[in-house]
Design goal:
Order of helices and strands: HEEHHEHEEEHHHH
Helix content: 25-40%
Mean pLDDT: 92
Number of helices: 8
Low-confidence stretches: none
Number of domains: 2
Length: about 230
């Protein structure tokens, strides 16, 4: 494939990148044009376009599982390898949430790129996907690429009176303002924590938004094991 500048058509580059990522279960989740001087490439050129790459539900799982290799951080390594290939094909530099310190501000980038909002659990919530999505990396371009218009939406949490996510945690690890990571991890090590460890966080599952995108059990167990330090994320 040729670099992005050799492609014609307003959204053709964006769409072609999206097609390449979709073959791996990844989703191009829009992007934005950084302010002048905000970001630069290793060459010193200013970044004119930032594209976010992520996943929704368990669409990523079959491709990752088929390509998974032994060693630490298998999902991060696999994600980086895919983004490097796509970046090489289109002239973009891949960056990952795990790069750092200093770490890239992916949550801030996400809120600039698409309608996602802070939730009481600290995870960004999407009006359609709920809490069942994530960001695997980003592609930085020196060129200003055409981007689709971002949807206009509001946070579903603003319309949620009961907030079941805050009452579903067996150890009350969430209070809407902070997350007690130690209490959560300690609970997962007990017999009572088997339901969370084997089927994903109960607080996350309590959210009524995005139910069709809930992670399949083996996908959820992988992330919970990674959180516990038993598997690479």
């Amino acid at each position: 494939m040729a670099p992005a500048s050799e492609h014609a058509g307003p959204l053709r580059v964006y769409e072609e990148i999206g097609q390449c990522l979709a073959a791996h279960g990844l989703l191009l989740r829009n992007g934005f044009h950084p302010d002048a001087g905000e970001l630069s490439l290793e060459s010193g050129e200013a970044v004119a376009t930032l594209l976010l790459v992520g996943h929704v539900g368990s669409a990523i799982w079959p491709a990752f599982r088929a390509a998974r290799t032994e060693g630490p951080d298998p999902l991060d390594r696999w994600s980086r390898s895919v983004l490097e290939k796509v970046g090489d094909a289109f002239g973009g530099r891949p960056v990952m949430p795990s790069d750092g310190p200093p770490y890239w501000p992916f949550q801030q980038w996400a809120m600039r790129a698409e309608p996602v909002f802070p939730s009481p659990l600290g995870i960004l919530i999407h009006p359609l996907y709920g809490l069942w999505h994530g960001y695997r990396g980003a592609l930085l371009f020196a060129e200003r690429l055409e981007l689709p218009e971002s949807a206009d939406a509001s946070s579903p949490c603003d319309r949620c009176r009961d907030r079941p996510c805050l009452s579903a945690c067996p150890v009350g690890a969430f209070n809407g303002a902070a997350y007690d990571v130690s209490a959560c991890r300690a609970h997962l090590r007990t017999e009572a924590g088997a339901a969370c460890l084997g089927g994903s966080c109960l607080a996350r599952r309590a959210c009524p938004v995005g139910a069709p995108y809930v992670y399949r059990d083996d996908h959820a167990r992988f992330h919970m094991a990674a959180f516990q330090g038993d598997s690479g994320g």
